[in-house]
Structures are given as C-alpha cells and as structure tokens.
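ERR on first pass: missing label on line 2. Operator R.T. fixed the label and resubmitted. Corrected input:
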Amino acid sequence: MERITTALTVLTNTGADRAALPLLWWLGPIAAIVALFFAILFYKQMMRRSEGNEQMKFIAQAVREGAMAYLSRQYRVVALVFVVLFVIFLVLSFLKLQNPIVPFAFLTGGLFSALCGYFGMKTATNASARAAHAASKNLNSGLQVALRAGAVMGLVVVGFALLDITLWFLLLYAGFPILFPQHFISLAANPLPQITAIMLSFGMGASTQALFARVGGGIYTKAADVGADLVGKVEANIPEDDPRNPATIADNVGDNVGDVAGMGADLYESYAGSILATSALGVAAVNLAGNNLLPGKSALQIGLLYITAPIVLSALGIVLSILAIYMVRTKDEASQSELINSLSRGLNLSSIGIAVLSLPLLYVLGLPNWFAIWICVLAGLGVGLVIGKSTEYYTSHAFQPTRNIAEQADTSSATALIEGLAVGMESGAIPVAVVVIGIMISYYVAGGVDNLLMGLFGVGIASVGMLSTLGFTLATDAYGPIADNAGGNAEMSGLDRQVRQRTDELDAVGNTTAAIGKGFAIGSAALTSMALLAAYLEEIRLVLIELRGIDSLLVRGELIPVMQMTMQNFMDFYHVSLLNPSVLAGLFIGAATTFFFSAMTMRAVGRAATGMVEEVRRQFREIKGILDGSARPDYARCVEISTAAAQREMLAPSLVAIIVPVVVGVIFGIPGVLGLLAGALVSGFSLAVTMANAGGAWDNAKKYIEVGEFGGKGSAAHKAAVIGDTVGDPFKDTAGPSLNILIKLMTMVSVVFAGLVVAFSQGQGLIYMLLH
Amino acid sequence: MERITTALTVLTNTGADRAALPLLWWLGPIAAIVALFFAILFYKQMMRRSEGNEQMKFIAQAVREGAMAYLSRQYRVVALVFVVLFVIFLVLSFLKLQNPIVPFAFLTGGLFSALCGYFGMKTATNASARAAHAASKNLNSGLQVALRAGAVMGLVVVGFALLDITLWFLLLYAGFPILFPQHFISLAANPLPQITAIMLSFGMGASTQALFARVGGGIYTKAADVGADLVGKVEANIPEDDPRNPATIADNVGDNVGDVAGMGADLYESYAGSILATSALGVAAVNLAGNNLLPGKSALQIGLLYITAPIVLSALGIVLSILAIYMVRTKDEASQSELINSLSRGLNLSSIGIAVLSLPLLYVLGLPNWFAIWICVLAGLGVGLVIGKSTEYYTSHAFQPTRNIAEQADTSSATALIEGLAVGMESGAIPVAVVVIGIMISYYVAGGVDNLLMGLFGVGIASVGMLSTLGFTLATDAYGPIADNAGGNAEMSGLDRQVRQRTDELDAVGNTTAAIGKGFAIGSAALTSMALLAAYLEEIRLVLIELRGIDSLLVRGELIPVMQMTMQNFMDFYHVSLLNPSVLAGLFIGAATTFFFSAMTMRAVGRAATGMVEEVRRQFREIKGILDGSARPDYARCVEISTAAAQREMLAPSLVAIIVPVVVGVIFGIPGVLGLLAGALVSGFSLAVTMANAGGAWDNAKKYIEVGEFGGKGSAAHKAAVIGDTVGDPFKDTAGPSLNILIKLMTMVSVVFAGLVVAFSQGQGLIYMLLH
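pass 2 clean. output:
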C-alpha cells in the first residue's frame, strides 16, 4: 500500500513553486459541462416528439433492441480486452516497466469513449422514427429532429473528452499532491512533463475502444448492408429498405452501430488524442527552452499556458458548435438548397468563429508566440476545409470523377471497378499536399527552426484547431445515419412516398457535410500522429529517468543529462537515421501493417457478408410468401448473424494493432518504432484516403445512375454500379476509417509500452543487444 | 572542344598509382559475350523450325507486324523523351550542375535496354507459331521451342547489361585516361567513386526506358485483354483466342509487348541497377575505411576488388543459367509433373550453383570479408526464393487463398473482389518480413555496425546474388507469354484440340516458375533501392566536390572534408531525422506518389479498354457474320486502338516519376528526397505486392472455376471470377510491375539531378534557403 502511495506521489509531485492554473484554463471544464448540459437538453427535446404509428414504433424498437444487444455484446468483449491489458499494465508497473497510474488512466479513456458510443446510439435509435414522423410534416422538422439527435452525439463526445482530460489534469496537478502530501523532487520544480505523459495513456484507452468500435461496427454494418444489397437489390430486385428483405433491420441496426457508435468512438479518440499530444509537446517545448520564452516566469508557469492553449481552443469550439446547431433552422417548407445553405451556415459560423475569436483568446492567455499559434489554428482549419472540399470533389456526383465511374459502369462492372480504384488512389494527392503544406506552415511559424518541439506543438495546435468545432461537424456526421434510418423506417412502415423522398433529401444533404467531417478526421489524424512521434520520445525521456533511474546518457561521446537532451540528442543516441536498417525495417513493417490490417478487416466483411447472403437466400427459399408480402421474414436471425460475425472478426485485427508496435519495439528498439510509426502514418494515410474516397465515389456513382443517368435503376449500368458500391462498402466504412485509428493506436501503444522497450539496452532493441 | 576534353579527363583521372584490374574482373565481359553468343545460337535454332501451315504463318505474321509496329512507335516516343532529357543534361552540364559524361551514359543505358526489348520480342513473335507447331508433335518439343526462345530474352538481357557495364567501366577507367592523357588530380589517387557515380546515370537510362516499356506495354496488353474478355467471353460467350473475336490479335500482340518487351526492359533495369548500386557502395565503403580493410593495398586496389565482386557473381550466374537451360529437357512424351520437375531442376541447379560456387570465387577474388559477402549472397537467394514461394501460395489455385476467392465468386462478384483485394493486401506480409530479415542479415554480417556503407554493400550483394541467375529465371518468365501465344495461334488456326491442351499445360507450368521470377524481381527492387539510398548520398559527395568545388562543410560546428564525411556526417549536415518536417513531407509525398502513379496507370487501362470494348461491340454489330464465322473481323483496327492508347497514356505517369523527385529535391532539399525515396520504397513495395498478387489470385481463381469447380465455365461463379480477373489485369500487368520501376527510377532521377538539387543551399532546399 505504501509502495503505491509512494509511487503515486513520486509521479505527481509538483515541486516547491506550485503555480496557479491560468484563469482561462477553467473554460475547459466549464465548456465540457455546458456541452453535456445541451446534450441532455437536445435529447429531452427529441424524446418529447412522437414516434408515429404502431408500425413505426415496432420497427424502431426492433432496430433499438438489435443495436443495444450488439453494443452490450461488443462492450463485453472489449471489457475483457481492457481487463487483460489492465492486468498487463499492472504487472509492468510492479516490474517498474510502467508508470502505476497508467493502468487507471487507460481505463477511464476507454470508459468515457464507451459511454459516448452508448449515449450516441441510444439517441440515434430513438430519433429515427421520430425524424420520419417529423418529416411527414415537413422537411425542416425532419432536419431539426435528425440534426439535434446528431448534436447529442457531437456534444457528448466533446463534453466527455474535455471533462475527462481536465479532471485528470486537476487530479494529477492538484489532487494527488494534497492526498499524498510527501513530496519527492524528481523532475525539479516542474511536474507537467510527467502529468502529460501519464495522460497520453488515457489516449490509448480511447484508441483501443475506438478501434474495436470502428472495426466491430464496420464489420457489422457492412455485412448487413452487402447481404441486403446483393440478394435484395440485385437478385430479388426489391428496393432498398424493403420490409420483405430479411436483412433490412440488420442493415438499419448497422447504420447505428457503425456510423454512429463507431464514428463517435473514432472522433472521441481523435479529439482527445490531439489535445493530449499537443499538451505534451507544449510542455516539452517549454521545458527545453527554459524561461527564455517568457522572462520572469518559471517553466512551470509557462508550461501551464501551453497546456491551456488547446483546452481554450476546444472550449471556444464547443460554444461555437452549440451556436451553430441553433443556427440550422429554416422555414418549415424549405427547399433542399436552402437546407444545404442552412447547414453550411452552421459550418461557416463555427469555422470563422474559431478563426476570429481564437486570436484574442490566445492573446489574453498570454502565450509568448500567440500570433504564431493563431496562424497554426488557421492552417489547421485550412487543411481540414481543403481536404473536405477535395473529398467532396472526388465523391460527389456533381463532379467529374464520380460521373466517370458511372460512365465506366455503362461499359461493365470491371471497368467501373478499375475506374473507382483509380479515383480513390488519385484522390490522396490533394490531401497529402495540404497536409504537407499545413505541417510546414505550422512547424516553421511556431518556431520549429529554433525549437523543434515548439514547431511540433504548432502542428499539434493545427490539429486541435481543426477539430475544435467537432461538436458541430460530428452532429452533421451523425445526422446522416439518423436520416438514413428514418428513411428505412418510413419505407418499412409504408409511409407516404413523399416522406421517403424527404428523408432521402436529408440524407443527401448529410453526405455533403459528412465529406467535410471526414476531411477533418483524416487530416487531424495525420497532424496528430506527427505530433505523437515527438511525444513518444518525450515519453522515453521520462521512462529513462523515472523507471530506469538513468540520469544521463553518453551521446556521441558526450555525457548529457536526460532531462536536457534535445530531440536531436535522442536521434543521435538511438541512431535514428534513414540509413539505419532498423529504421528502414520499421518503415517497411509500418507500411505493410496498414495493408495487412486492411486485408483482415476487408476479409472479415467478406466472410460475414457471405454468411448474410446465404441466410437471406435461405429465407427467400424456405419461408414461402416473403416476396409477395404474405409472410414476415426472420429479421432477428440476420441481426444475430451480423452481431456474431462482428464479435468474432473484430478481435484479430485489433490485436495486430496492439502487438506489432510492442514486438517491433523489443526487436528493433526505438529506431524501429519510429520507423514503424512513420511508415504506418504515410502509407496508412494514402491507403485510408484511397479506400474512403473510392468507396464514396462508387456509392455516389450508383446514386447518379439511380437518378436516371445511363439507363437509371435496373439498367446494366446500375447493376455494375451496385457491384462497385458493394466493394466500396468495406472500403469506406470498415477498412478505411479503421486505418485512422490504427495509425494512432500504434503510436499510443508505443507510448504506453515505452517502459518495456527501454528495458532492452535502453531502448536500442534486441538486435542491438545481441550485436554489442 | 578543349573544355569537353578537359572535363572528360578531370572525370576520368586515375591518379598516379594505376592498378591493374583483378583477373577475375575479365569474367564479366567474357560471360556477357558468351551470353550473347548463346542467345544467337538459340535464336538460330528456333528459326530453323517450321512455322506450320499457312493459317499459322498468317496469324504469326499478323501478331509480329502488330508487335513491331507498336514497338517502333513506342521507341519513337521514348526517343523523343530521351532527346529532351539528353538536352536538359547537356544544359545542366554546361551550367556545371551535371557531370558532362552523364548524358552519354544515360543514352547507352536506354539504348541497350531498347535493344533487349527489340530482340526479345522479335524472338518471341517468331517463336509462337513454331512452338504451336512443335507442340503438335509432343509436349516436350513445344516446351523446348518456347523455353529456348525465352532464353534468348534472358541471355540478351544479362549479356547486354553486363557488356554495357564492363565496357563503360573499361572506358572510364582506362580508355579516357589514354585518350586524354593530361591528368587532373581531383579525388586523390582513387577515381573509382567518380566512375561508379557516373555509371549510375547509365541506370537512369535503363530505368526510364523500362518505365515506358512497362507502362506502355502494360496499357497495351491490358486494354486488348480486357476488351477481348469483356465482350468476347462475357457478352458474346465465345472462348478465349477465338478467331471471331476482333480483339484477339491485339490480345496476342499485347502478350508480346507487355509480358516480353516490357518485362525484359524491367529486368534489364533491375539487373543493371543492382550491379551499379552495389559497385558504388563497395567503392564508397572502401574509400571511407581506407586501407584498414586489406593492409598493404591501396584504396584503389581494394576498391577494384569490391567492384569486381558483383561482376563475378553475375558472370557465374550467366554460365549457370546457360547450363540450366540445357538441363530442361525431358522425354518426348513427358507428363506435366515431369515438365515442372524439369524446370525446377534448372532453377535449383542455378540457385545451388550460385550458392556453392560463389564461395570459392569470392575467396579467390581476395575480398577481405569474402565469407561474410558469401552469406549475403545466400541471404539474397533466400529472400528471392521465399518471396517466390509466398507468391505461389497466394496466387496458385493449389492453395487456400485463391480457392477462397473462387468460393466467394460463387456468392457474387462483389464478394470475390473484396476477397481478392484482401488476399492481395495480406500477401505483402511475408515478403516484407523476409526483405527485412534479408536486409538485417546482410547488413550486419557484411559489417554494418562498424562501416555503414559496407553493411549496405552487403545488402546490394544480396540483390546481385538474387538476380545473378536472371538469365534462366527470365527465360522461364518470357516462356509463359510465348506458350500463351502458341495457344492463341493454335486456337485461331483451328489446330487439333490436343495442341491447345498442350500449350495450356505449358502455360500453366510457366505460371509456377513465373511466380518465382516475380519474387526475385520485387525482392531485388527492395534491396537495390535500399542500397541506392546510400549511393545517392555518395553522389551528393561528388557533386559537392566536383561541381560545386566545396572541399569541406561545417557539420555541427566541426569543419569536415567532404571526402571524409561519413554517412552520419551527411545525415547531420542535412538534418535527416524522422522529426524533420522535410523528411516527413518527403515520406508523405513518396507514399502518395505510388498511389497516384498507380491511379494514372489503372485509369489509362480503363480508358483504353473502354475504347476497345466499344470497338469490339461495334464490329459485332456492324460487320454481319462475324459470330457465325462467315465474315472476318477487322483485327487491325483493334491493334491500332491499343497502340494509339498506349502511346497516348504512357507519357503522363512516366513524367510524374521524373518530375516529382526533382521538384521535391528543389523545395525540400536532400532530407526531402531521402524521405521521398524511403516513402515510395516502403509504400510502393506493399502496394506492388498487393496488386501483383491480387491480380494473380483472381486470374487463377477463374482458372480454378474453369477446371470444373463451383459450376465450371459459364456458371455464375465463372462470370463473377471473370470480372475479378479483369479488374486484376491492370493490377498485375500494368500498375503493379510498373511500381517496381517507379521506385528505382525516382532514385535514379534523384541521383542524376543531384547537381541541380545541391545548387540550392548545398542541397538543403528552397524552404531552408528562405528560412535562413
């Protein structure tokens, strides 16, 4: 007991000169609570609405039950994984290979992420029938219900993330020193590096949860979708969401578990990860620069300013998001273009708001390089917007690339597939270009020439700025599947065709905004990962001091205190150069891991979908009267198949993400890990964009044909496009988005297992040990 | 004139202590001439055989004319590109940004590569009817004709490559100093670094030619193939190579221009590139180690040993390849398994021969670390064999992955496509693992811990060892399309069904050996590229001294003579660390370039195939009586369409490969280039394996169904598999193999344009210039 107490106090010691938190820091927890308050408000408003007639309620109830049954089974599997990892971390702690607070921080990251998924999905499944019912009144009412329900998800994510981060910080900064008053001077007067390093492990909890949610949800939804489409649309020639299709309920459940719960966990992780990585870098940058940055203030005081900066930006983003949600309201009988304008207004308001208001906030906060940091925020917003626009260009059928696919579909499915793959592969060029430009601008503007860590802090701030309005962008993201489900409900309940038309319009509006949301998600992943590379080395520094008790290292013949080692010293000590075969091995393995991981998730979808196809065919064959509507298909069996398949299939790919960095770290050491992370980042980014956009483009090429081009529904071109869409489903909804998380989870795993890796020749790895 | 003379002599000065070439070095040119002699012998033997009846001759002639017409048009376009590049190089030379011999070395690389393509294709197009005619006697005769014809290609490639390399070396080492006797002491007493650096630009000629051949040939063959398959097989339900199909001659021409001429140029480039890169590294390693390696000998004398090592290995490989070709002969009525055994015997003989005989040769040569270098040869062979076996596992329908695709085809084409993509993505894991293991073994065994360059020389030797038996492996590779064409000829000439069965068997045997050949090609590309990264920095060293007149640089506060800078000094001077945003930008752009390039080549195939599909449909519609055989289709029109499409489409992707490294070099400097090359290498490797194996697996899944599984030919599963095969065509025969060359061409371009890049702040790049 005393050991634990001792350990905890060691880790939380704040030294003699305790500094008060900047006043603006408190905006963080306040905004978090405000976000949660509005989430509850929107939820209650939504629940007060009517769910419509009995048939609508029945279908909504079936989807709800399926979704919740899935979620509880998923959480049970994930809980098991968390318990195993928790025990591993505890054992590592007792072996002095791990910080003893890490296991707990890890747990809360996972827990809050799971809560977001739960609340988001509860809201979404309650909203679909209500949105359908509201849409039977008019378009705007449907929009309001769906968007407000999506906003619950958005606000819960940002609220919980910011709450968890600020509470942990309070606990580590002020709580533990009060609870355990003995002080151990370990990192001079500045405990912030320790605190931010511990908090990164909270990110690993969120990432692990997110990967399971994305992979499991992605498998579920696409197995159902592919199964429903292939047999229903192609073979039996019945429309989407037709109640005669046995897989239709599973399909609608899938939208919720994949696109709502999965996406929520995904973006929770991105949001929290970018704030945590940026904080760690800010502290590290200040630590090395000393008090040159702001004469007269201690490193602790300046560090607190840099920790506060991302929190202030996020708090501002929350307020703007709530305002933006309220902005989205139009006349009762709005046209579609008015709707799009309305949503765009929200997006513009929040983006411009961040751009304009962050300047005075950063100034008032008192950051020495406040203007430069503001430029980084702008760079981040710019990157997100351009990626979003590029995504829209490549995936919307208003533009040439998607129309070309439709044209190729008129030749054959094979040429449509080739063209779609080409569109996807081409579409990475603009995002990569703007990410590179964004990195260069924020790195150099923030001061990377003199202080590499400050440059990377700038890159981190760019990703925080980009994600700051997540409350709103996620609302517009989550709104899509809700509108989609509303349409399904309307179709299955046999509502007026006009209702279905309206929900389709809502869905279509959502696609445009979702493209921009995706741009933000993937752009921030790239920027955050770059920041995490440096955060990883900061973690190594602490591990060397805290766990290994190493005060100084011999770097190229010079003994340098570990506390004062620059990033360059680390690179020198670990021989991290592009000609070191361990770095190249890491790069190779990193790139290959992204492909291998995608293979696993794609195959999982393929296998699960085959099971679904067989079941749907069996029902059509064995249950007489399904097609003429005289008999009801066995929906539950299809839900069960998707659920079981997702559970079975999600484990292996997720374990790959956890095991690879540890094994590479042990064998190739820290140069290998850095290579691995960089390789996975650059290769995974291109691959993820390729998959997401190819999938999106196939989907919309199909829709383009459905609106009457190239022969319209039922034509040969349409059949070819449906095949493209089906291949694209696991691309855009399973493998592609999972890659984002894979990249970051591998970094987080590296950070958390740094202690183990450093145990092998100070992190030079087994191969080095054997050769020296 | 005098300036040129002066320049030439500067570049070729050998200093005072001229050393004689090691006796074993002369094995190189001798083996090259022997190879060319046997190539002529095999060609004459083949030409003495009968081409069969009039119809066979007519078809062979049509294919021959189409192929030669294509080749001459391709060469005209490429010649134009070469002239432009030649002029650019000349201008750069006069601006002192380029070595004045480079333009000429560049030209010969391209010229000899073009000759290989020409002779290879001339042989192949003359052999097909003869192989068909021989196969009408018995299986073994068909095998002999096809394999010997393939051997012409194999021997021409290794012969010309080794001849060009050894002649240039003689000219630079001994010829120029005699022609231009004034001596300019520029690199002390050792001219080898200059000579090997100049010779690398010969590699760029070969790479440029190879890329055009691969991309152009790949587009040609797949446009014809896809067009023929989609309309002929799927829509009109006529079998492969049916004379009623208007695209069938174009399809057969395509096999020759893509799989023979394209592959020949590809492997010529790999073979020459690995020898050149390894020589450059050997010289550099010796140069830095000084005469510690072999006391009593000068750096020049030791350097000559290291230059001789890859040449001796290649010479040995040529002799073994010729023996292996003679080994492949069985009884007249051999069964298929006997045939496979016969081919495998040849492969085993040459591989074991290299493994056993290289040990005494390296010992006799007198390399100080001869045993270690021998281990590297073994490592290289091992990597090639394992990748080959892994390729076979993933793409042969004797194994589970391909059968799974066939099974998924029974569900739908979409699931077959998903499964195939998953198989491809998964199949990179083993190749990456063995490449990493091969790199680690050869690097450390060769002595990379003490001398990084010697470690990389070991990696280079591994790739030379792997490719040493190319004479034979390429024969088995080129033999495939010849057998395929023989089958086409038999089918179109209405020969006995038994003949077609025999050629199909020959084709099938070729698939197995071709898989191993592909393993060698892609494995060596990875190893050579790694070696080229260091060779690039060696080039920078020479550029700094020769062109910029910089004798020493300030590296971290210490003034170091450029001649004595270690690789680490270069890394330090240019800030090449994984946290340098320029390096990361390069990595991002490198990965993205491989995707973008693939998109361009895939789309080119899609576009060209669409044109072909429309033409074939038009002919079926407009030329009455094609399908009942009463009218002859317009073959020439289809040949023309493929030719024109390939010409039009090959330029843009090839220019990307040339422009990107130059632009990245100018903007981001040398750290950016190194990042670019590493990013393209690791991402391109995984992507290339993915594409090649997914394509191969789809192809064989279709064949598996055709032999009677899942309903056999004409079943729904078969139709689904044909779609998969069609999507796989550009994967495996256009984009995938082109990536290999892209990776190396980008490195070669960087090497050749090093002078231009160094002109910007000594190679720190524009961004650095602007910021400092």
